[in-house]
Design a protein that fits this description.
Number of strands: 23
Strand content: 15-25%
Helix content: 25-40%
Distance between the termini: 46 Å
Strand order of the largest sheet: 13-12-14-15-23-22-21-18-19
Number of helices: 18
Radius of gyration: 25 Å
Bound molecules: glutamine
Largest sheet: 9 strands, mixed
Length: about 525
């Protein structure tokens, strides 16, 4: 799947929607994202660059589109599902250093393109999947994406047309002055693809207004695509409507026909439709504050926002998420800023900017009995707050922010202390956690052993465990291997849960995350 005309057309959502339809027809499908930037992975990127960094169970730091893939398909992804130009070059250069190219000049073609093709095939090695949907990041015509397009051209030649279908997503803008939808940008972007050697098989046209038959026919004619292989993708109110729209457009059937695969029974999508019905007909409405420091770009908290959608639907509740900048919260204005909220989520984050606002927020939630979910840094802030204001450890802090604190209640693990490299060196991926039966977390999960995904360097400092416990902040989730505290709760509170891991990554349409589900329940009850 390639994209043309502009970025942000929703290629990730389209890929996820198509894959979901194919999966519903009984095919095993996975989606892969190839990102044309030089970073080896997005782990070192500021969220303002490309939004949130999504973490897979196997500990890969990946593009946020993988989150969509998991949320739509309900199947875990892995490192193989996200490859960047940086990773491709790293592999090729390492091979060159080892002498693997036997004296050859190492070039973009064939060495880089071969590595791209190898990565595409790798994701389904052992014939794990019937269909691999590979999304090429960026826009056709970008310098960075050229090697990828060339790799696709070669792959199509190698596999044969019946085994490889190119879907191109473009934009058909609407000119309100003349009331017309214009197809020229699409024609140009298909020309661009043709110049790079690829004739797309299927076109998907993003548009604000539904397109006439004539327009689709015109696009088909000028872009040399079958008339029934042009689908439109009209703006919808939630991304979760897109699969149904694509079903109407028969996109799944078109792709299967081109692959020579049967497309017999139309999938009923019962669960999916029920999810949408509940989402669109809520019985309750709550307002939750999401306190973070990257709030100018909502994509920074993509998985959290989506987890609210899934768990909101399950609770038949419209969750209005208000993004609140943690830098703007002070002792003086906290009441004014947070008083209308039914629940508070303090978001993950790194570094010192905005952390005092998060600590003040945690205190406000604790003292006013407002349902609180603290994720990663959000848990750490709750711990710092409790130490300062309940345990009277006045300058308690995380050593991430204050190395000289007298009470390092959040601190680096011993094995982290010698690490200098920033890329891929955090505690990453799925870890086991055992739950105390007498806890809100156990009530939510309904089992004593869970696996959740992590992405952090700092930890609850064991040295203070007894003090916290004796004063009402209870460690209710413990990692059985390392004994690290993974969940804390307040004994005397309606619903106050801090988790060192990231529950948001694990929430899907079919399986909304239990902590979010129960957090929302607590907010509704409030
Ligand atoms: N900065 C904190 C740490 O590294 C929290 C990270 C996060 O919220 N993901 O431990």
């Amino acid at each position: 799947m390639t994209g043309g005309v502009t970025s942000s057309l929703g290629k990730g959502t389209l890929a996820a929607s198509l894959a979901m339809l194919l999966q519903a027809r009984g095919y095993s499908v996975t989606i892969q994202k190839l990102d044309p930037y030089i970073n080896v992975d997005p782990g070192t990127l500021n969220p303002y660059e490309h939004g949130e960094c999504f973490v897979t169970l196997d500990g890969a730091e990946t593009d946020l589109d993988l989150g969509h893939y998991e949320r739509f398909l309900n199947v875990p992804t892995s490192q193989a599902n996200n490859v960047t130009t940086g990773r491709i070059y790293q592999t090729v250069i390492e091979k060159e250093r080892k002498g693997d190219y036997l004296g050859k000049t190492v070039q973009v073609i064939p060495h880089i393109t071969d590595e791209i093709k190898r990565r595409i095939k790798l994701v389904s090695s052992g014939n794990k999947f019937d269909i691999v949907l590979t999304e090429i990041g960026g826009t056709v015509g970008d310098i960075e994406s050229l090697p990828y397009i060339e790799a696709v051209r070669q792959l199509k030649w190698e596999l044969g047309a019946q085994n490889c279908v190119v879907i191109h997503l473009t934009l058909v803008p609407f000119l309100s002055a003349t009331g017309e939808s214009k197809t020229k940008p699409t024609q140009h972007s298909v020309k661009e693809l043709l110049e790079e050697g690829i004739q797309p098989d299927v076109l998907v046209l993003r548009t604000e207004h539904s397109l006439s038959k004539e327009i689709k026919r015109k696009v088909a004619l000028f872009c040399n695509v079958e008339e029934n292989a042009v689908a439109e993708s009209v703006d919808v109110s939630t991304i979760y409507e897109v699969p149904l729209k694509m079903l109407d457009e028969k996109l799944d059937q078109t792709v299967l026909r081109k692959l020579g695969l049967p497309a017999e029974n139309e999938p009923p999508l019962i669960e999916w439709r029920e999810f949408l019905r509940r989402l669109n007909n809520p019985k309750y409405k709550i307002k939750v504050g999401l306190v973070g420091k990257y709030v100018e770009l909502p994509d920074s908290y993509k998985s959290i926002s989506e987890a609210f959608v899934h768990s909101g639907s399950l609770n038949e509740c419209d969750v209005d998420v208000e993004f609140i900048h943690s830098e703007e919260i002070t002792e003086d204005n906290v009441n004014e800023k947070l008083k209308d909220l039914d629940g508070i989520l303090v978001a993950p984050g790194f570094g010192s900017r905005g952390i005092e606002g998060k600590i003040i927020t945690a205190r406000f939630a604790r003292e006013n009995n407002i349902p609180y979910l603290g994720i990663c840094l959000g848990m750490q802030c709750a711990v710092i707050e409790f130490a300062r204001n309940v345990l009277k450890m006045e300058d308690a802090h995380s050593t991430e922010v204050d190395l000289n604190t007298s009470y390092p209640v959040i601190d680096l693990m011993e094995e982290q202390k010698s690490i200098i490299d920033k890329g891929g060196t955090m505690r990453l991926g799925g870890f086991r956690c055992l739950l105390d039966k007498n806890s809100k977390a156990f009530k939510a999960y309904g089992k004593t052993e869970i696996i959740e995904r992590h992405r952090h360097r700092y930890e609850f400092n064991d040295r203070y465990l007894e003090k916290f416990k004796n004063n009402g902040m209870i460690p209710v989730g413990i990692n059985p291997e390392s004994n690290l505290v993974e969940i804390v709760e307040l004994a005397d509170h309606k619903w106050f849960v801090g988790v060192q891991f990231h529950p948001e990554y694990g929430s899907t349409v079919v399986n909304p995350h239990p902590l979010f589900v129960h957090f929302i329940k607590a907010c509704i009850e409030k």
